[in-house]
Structures are given as C-alpha cells and as structure tokens.
Amino acid sequence: MTALFTNPLPIPVLGFCAYSGTGKTTLLKQLIPLLNQRGLRLAVIKHAHHNFDVDIPGKDSFEMRKAGAKQVLVASNMRWALMTEDPLDDDPQLQHLLRQIEVDKVDIVLVEGFKKLALPKIELHRAAHNKPLIHIHDDNIVAIACCDETTVPASLTRLDLNNVAQIADFVQHYQQNWQATVINLPVDASKAAKIDDTANNKNGISVSQGVAAVLAQITPTNHPEVVDLIDIDNHVLAQDIISEINVPQQTNSAMDGYAFAFNSIANAPLKVVAEVLAGHHYPNILQDGEAVRIMTGATVPQGADTIQAIELANEQNQKLILLETDKIIKGQHVRLAGEDIAQGQVALAAGTRLGAAELGLMASLGFHRLPVFKRPIVAVFSTGDEVSQPGDQLKANCIYDANRYTILSMAKKLGCQVIDLGIIDDNEQTLTNTLIDAGTKADIVISSGGVSVGNADYIKMALANVGNTHFWRINMRPGRPLAVGNINQSLFFGLPGNPVAVMVAFLQFVQPAIRKMAGEANWLPQFIPAIASQPLRSKTGRTEFLRGIYTLGPDGKIHVSTTGAQGSGMLSSMVNANCLIVIGDDHDTIPTGGSVFIQPFADLL
Ligand SMILES: Nc1nc2c(c(=O)[nH]1)N[C@H]1C(S)=C(S)[C@@H](COP(=O)(O)OP(=O)(O)OC[C@H]3O[C@@H](n4cnc5c(N)ncnc54)[C@H](O)[C@@H]3O)O[C@H]1N2
Ligand code: MOO
Where is the MoaB/Mog domain (predicted)? Predict the structure, then answer.
C-alpha cells in the first residue's frame, strides 16, 4: 500500500527505495558526483529514523538551539543551514520538506527513504538478501536496479545495480523528460493511459489524472496566419519576433529638464545653449559647462550624460543653477538606446499569448501585423427540458440557461472563436445531428448537463451515436461527473450541469486543453500559496475547489477566506469570489492559519 503523494515542485522528485543493507547510500554517493559531472544540480532528501543532529555541541548555533530557539539559521559565504525543531508523532511530511527546496538552484530532488509514498522510485534489489520485491505492491517503481538473479517484469526498466553510469543515464533521462504541467496538481502523464471506465466508475480519478488524460489527446495547432495588429485579440504568436530596431531608438530624456555632462556640475552655472523638443535633436556636441533644455522623450545630445528635472533647476538669462547637486547621480533620467529591447534580440517568443502589453511592445518595434496561430474554434450548447432561453418567459419548474454564457465567455477570454449552438431539444436525433454538425465546425465542442451517473438521457445516446465518449468520475468537488470524448477530429467535453461545477471543470480541464491546442508555450496554471483565514473543509482523496476571496494581509502574505455558502448551483459564490481555493487530494480539513493554494481568477473569468 502506498500513501498519496503530490509533488508540489516544478522539478522532478525521484525516490530510491530498498530494504536496509542493499546499499542505497553507497549508490547515491557514487551517483551524485557522476550526475554533477553531467551538469545536473541535485538536492537530496534523506529520511532518518532516529534523533539525528547536524550541529556540533559547543558551536554557537548548537547552543542557541539547545537554549530554546525553534529555528536556527547558520550561514557563511559557502553555505547556509536552517535547523528546525519540529517534534512529530509521525514521519515528517515529504511535501512539506520538498517545499523547503530552492527549486531555482537544483534540477531534480533525489529522495532516500519515504518508501511508502506514491512517488516515482527506483527500487534497489539484491537477490542474495532474499528480501521481497517492492514493485509487486508499489506501482510507482519506475526502474529496478538489481543483479542478474532478479527477475524484472517487462513493463519496468532493468538497471544493473553495479553499473552506476547506467543508473545515472536513467536519472538524467528521467529528469530531461519529466514535465510538470500543473503546479500542485501535477499531471502524471504515466497515469493517463491507465484510466479505464471500470476503475474510474469504482474509485474515480484524480484531477491530475484527468488533466493528463485530456492533454494527452491534444496536438498543438500548427496553422499560422498573419493578422493585423489591430485585429489580434489574445492570439498566440506562431514565430519568434526579432527586433529590427533598438527601443528606444535614441538615448533620450525621461524628464522635462536639463541635459549636461555630469563632470560639468563643478563648473556651474552652466550655459543653456539650446532647447531640444521630443522628435528633435541638438546638432552639436555639448561642451564642458554647457547644458540644453530638454523635454521628455527628446534625444540626449552627444556630450551629455545626465538630466536634472526642471523642478530642481533655476534658469535665468540662459544661466543654469542646479539645485541639490549633491544628490545628482551620473546618468540619472537618461533612457539608453536599446535599454528596453536591443536590435536583434528576440522580443517575443513563439507560443506567447498576445495581450495588451505584448501588442504594445510589438507596435513599439514597428510591427503592424504578426504571424499568429489560428484560434481554436469552440462550439457550445445546452440541453435539458428545464433549461430556458434568457429573455423568454420563465416557465414553471424551469431555469434560465446560465452555463452557455459562462462557457462562451470563458472560451472567448482564452482567445477562442466561439459558436453558440443555443439550447438543443432533448431528443436523440436532434442532439445527434447537433453533435455531428458541431464536430465539423469546431475544434472543441462543449455541452453542460446530463453527464451524472444516474442520468439516462439523450445526450449520452447521441454521444454514443457519433463517437467514443468516456464518462469519468473525478475526485473533486464541485464538478465530479465529466464526459470527455471525440466527434471526428473534435474534442468533446460534457461538463456537469450545476453552474459552479461547469466553471470549475472548465478551468481545470477545458482551459489547459484550449491553451495546449492554441499553441501556447510554457503555460502553467497559477496556483499561489495562501494562508487560510478560517478552517476549510475537505477530505483526503478529493480535491476541493472552494470559492475564495484573497487579500494581502498586513504581514505581506496572502490570506484567503471563502465566500460563504458553497452550493454547486450558486453562481453568486463565483461572482463574489476572486479565486478558487484549491485543497489537494492529499489534504484533509485545513485549520485556520494552515497553508492552501489559490487559483486567482485574474484574467481567467
Ligand atoms: N445519484 C446521483 N446524482 C447526482 C450525482 C451522482 O453522482 N449520483 N452527481 C451530482 C453532481 S456532483 C452533479 S454536478 C450533477 C450533475 O448532473 P448532470 O451533469 O447530469 O446535470 P443535470 O442533472 O442535467 O443538471 C444538474 C443541475 O444543473 C442545472 N443545469 C443544467 N443545465 C443548466 C444550464 N444550462 N444553466 C443553468 N443550470 C443548468 C440543472 O437544472 C440541475 O439543477 O448531478 C448530481 N446528481
Ligand atoms: O459537480 Mo457536482 O455537485 O460536484 O456540482
């Protein structure tokens, strides 16, 4: 039995497990220098079963800790160490320990111990020791390093326990090919293929498994087109854009004021020899003791290197007195040519989504049209006898269609071209025709409602007529039922009917699908750590998405509370929220002050 584990880091974590005496530490001691030689920066986490100490009695740090400091951080120019007294009844939490790793300093974390956790591991096995194989009960083993006598199943990589270079090859390959697609809710692509409807119906699947399975079905677009800058609206750039000019083109002033050579301050008063307006230049070289009156954006004359703002200068009869000269810094208020973007530099990389800032930058470089990827086309419809068109009279026992509007709006925000298919009558033939038609027009077809387990309605029959659709039970709340399938070349999503479930499921599953399909590079959902301002209810084994309001506390940290009632039909809870509070499936209820992740709505909704 393995315990749930989610890698909270954007770098791979690889465990080494074995019965004691197999030689884990010996192997790691040989492996680490070899991997270092290959340029891999490593962190190692080692589980110790006893009351270890890393400090030396008599040293100041040791004495301060023994005197009662809960944390002692000792640092030199070579290294630093943080020692924390954290007595626990149970084993330390690997996730908590991993969060202490500085991920910008290392490429992979090797873990020794924690063998019961469901993290990817290399098993070390010596047949001569007569110990059972761990992989039999642990499907997180990715390779077995062993001797000739051990039998290894074909599905696992066999490594020679005595061939450290071969094990280093495996670790290096693992690191190079590992992909973190979701922070905190990692997409475990290896599990994507394992979802089958029987297992899924019994136990459900995790959010990360679902995302991995969805992403595995998507090939990024390779259809570029050239679009005028003015018509670009959240498109994704199809090629690197290289600047043909320096931005700014000339060294210019950031202030209305006076330009002069820093070295002439001693020769004050300076003589004002000209005025330079934006779009103009002073044709001569400024001499020692001279200054020009200069406006913001005007080219700084040759010979000048410093600007003083007009407020800190007095000019009379072309004589310039500079005030507060002791505060003038050489080069102040001068914007250097090319300081924003230098000629020949990649100004924007392919795969960048083009928002306001990116469009402004492209315009500042003189581009008036850009190669972008064709936008994904998303078709949306609603079904359900009770679902009525807003604007019509609301019939008894009915509700207005909210989902089509939230889905269309979220798809538009992601730069998609949308097709509104309206509310489709609950009848097998009409729905089948709609699906076939939508499949020819759209890259992604989305419906809402009619996907829960007990439902025997027409959408399921219609889907069976047109393609292969899987009905998943995702271990999340809200948004448990989800249908994913294909209609010809199109991807189909059947989102649950409850309006909040629709939005949450869209954000977790449809959004990454659209972004991948649209050709967006380096996209990761933004999960930001925050502090719970109140106890938050959840359950291990299920990911909870609560509607939250985050604020910046006086301590400079982000604090989050819920919007109140969390019914999955209550759209007002989404309106009042500015984020989703995400409590991963490895957590139970979070106490006040506990740490959670939030997914800010920011530009998503
Ligand atoms: N016996 C079970 N019942 C339910 C389960 C379950 O596992 N076993 N799951 C529940 C969960 S969780 C959800 S979510 C819903 C999802 O059901 P469906 O996807 O089949 O959706 P419907 O039943 O069609 O509708 C649910 C709810 O949403 C309203 N709705 C539907 N379409 C719209 C729309 N376009 N705009 C606004 N509101 C809409 C609909 O009226 C219902 O109130 O199933 C639970 N039941
Ligand atoms: O998907 Mo449902 O109730 O979890 O809203």
Answer: 379-516
